[in-house]
Design brief:
Blueprint (H helix, E strand, L loop, with lengths): L55 H4 L14 E4 H9 L11 H7 L9 E4 L9 E4 L1 E2 L1 H9 L3 E4 L6 H9 L6
Parallel strand pairs: 1-2, 2-4, 3-5
């Protein structure tokens, strides 16, 4: 092979189509854009427009809402906590809270607080301070000889029952 024989593979290079250069070119007049109007123009098209018919996203009913007061909690399971204690990334002798969980790398951030979940088994005796915990998680920690302190205000059951019994006003 000589230097002057080097060439691209056949079909690897293609010249761009020059549009709008007369009827004889095959891409004259509207230059492959169809008719006139909004679709022939550059960068404009109504998304979801159905020719005046009520669009699908407006025909369907609205559902649900976003609660602006919702508190997002980070979740930690007992088995992950036990793994961290075994790996010595978290000190089981000290009180475990959101800050220590983030420091150990068990959580990336604590969001609005930490919720302890009951998956797995806990063998170490630990004292935990969290914003929420499931009944099974509390039972497992206490069975191992530790304690769980809930930082979030507990929901008063008596107040909830009173609110449920309160008659609603007819409008």
């Amino acid at each position: 092979m000589k230097l002057h024989e080097i060439a691209d593979n056949p079909g690897s290079r293609k010249k761009r189509m020059r549009v709008g250069r007369g009827i004889g070119s095959g891409k004259g007049k509207q230059a492959g854009r169809g008719g006139k109007g909004q679709t022939a123009r550059s960068g404009v098209r109504i998304k979801g427009f159905e020719g005046g018919q009520m669009p699908l996203h407006r025909r369907l009913p609205k559902r649900g809402f976003n609660n602006i007061f919702r508190v997002e909690l980070s979740e930690v399971n007992l088995d992950r906590l036990q793994q961290a204690i075994d790996a010595k990334t978290i000190d089981g002798a000290k009180t475990i809270n959101a800050e220590s969980l983030v420091k150990s790398g068990l959580l990336r951030r604590s969001k609005g607080g930490v919720r302890l979940l009951g998956r797995g088994e806990l063998k170490a005796k630990v004292n935990i301070e969290v914003h929420g915990a499931t009944k099974s998680a509390i039972a497992a920690v206490e069975k191992a000889g530790g304690t769980v302190k809930l930082l979030a205000p507990a929901k008063d059951e008596a107040a909830q029952k009173a609110a449920a019994k309160k008659p609603k006003r007819a409008s």
